[in-house]
Structure formats: C-alpha cells, structure tokens
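Run log // design_07
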C-alpha cells in the first residue's frame, strides 16, 4: 500500500508543481486529480496500481474534514451575522449540483443508448437473420419462452 500511496502523492505533488510553475488559477490538487483521471483513461496508470489505497482513503474520507471543522469553530466570530448568506449559498449550490448531476446523467444515458435497440424493440434485420441462421445450424431455438427442444430433437 505504500507504493500505491506514493503514486497518488506523486501525482498530487505534480499537480501542485504545475500550478505553481505556470501560475494557473486552478488549485494544484484539482490539476492532480485531472492528471490521475487522464492517466487512468490513457492506461498509463492501471487501476490495480492505486486500488487499495484509494479505497482506504475513500473509506476514511470523513476524517479529512476534521481540520476544516475545527478551523470553522475557531473562526466562529468571523461568521457572525453572515449565517443567512451562508445558508442561501449552501441551498442554492445544492440545487445547482443536483440539477447539473441529473442533466449529466440524462445526457450520458442518451449517449450510451444511442445505436442500441430499446428494450422490447425488435433487433436489426441483419442481426436477427444471423441469429436465426446460427440457431438452425445448432438445431436449437432460443428465446421462445419455453424449455422445449427444437423439432427433431429428443429431450
């Protein structure tokens, strides 16, 4: 697991380095996550190389929010009189996140379903003809809803 942690940490530091070197307006940890995503997508990084450590980090994610919570408590006086604004921003951002997530899921679903026959719709003629030919060569009938053998076969 130490090797997996060093891979994840190296990618994080590379993101930080790129952010500082080029003065990018995006935080280094976000750049690191993008690098990790593209590395996994391109096959440069195999999922098995970081699987156990990433699972461990996700399982203990709540632990990493403790410093932010403690900081919020120590700076409590700075937030006096701003609770309504914080609440409004929290509710608005939650609604926006839900809407964007829902739209993204719908778009991805439409993209993945494009070109595939809908459930219950007939197969394309060429695929159906090939299926019938294969069944007749094998002497079996598939998808008839019964478990009976084809004509000429003995059960």
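design_07 sequence
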């Amino acid at each position: 697991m130490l090797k997996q942690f060093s891979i994840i940490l190296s990618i994080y530091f590379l993101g930080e380095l790129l952010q500082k070197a080029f003065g990018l307006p995006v935080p280094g940890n976000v750049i690191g996550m993008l690098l990790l995503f593209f590395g996994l997508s391109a096959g440069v990084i195999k999922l098995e190389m970081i699987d156990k450590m990433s699972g461990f980090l996700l399982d203990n994610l709540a632990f990493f929010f403790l410093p932010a919570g403690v900081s919020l408590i120590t700076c409590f006086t700075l937030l006096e009189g701003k609770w309504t604004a914080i609440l409004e921003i929290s509710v608005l951002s939650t609604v926006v996140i839900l809407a964007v997530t829902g739209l993204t899921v719908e778009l991805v679903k439409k993209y993945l379903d494009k070109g595939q026959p809908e459930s219950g719709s007939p197969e394309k003629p060429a695929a159906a003809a090939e299926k019938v030919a294969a069944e007749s060569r094998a002497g079996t009938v598939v998808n008839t809803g019964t478990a009976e053998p084809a004509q000429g076969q003995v059960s």
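Helices lie at 2-22, 28-42, 51-59, 66-74, 83-113, 125-138.
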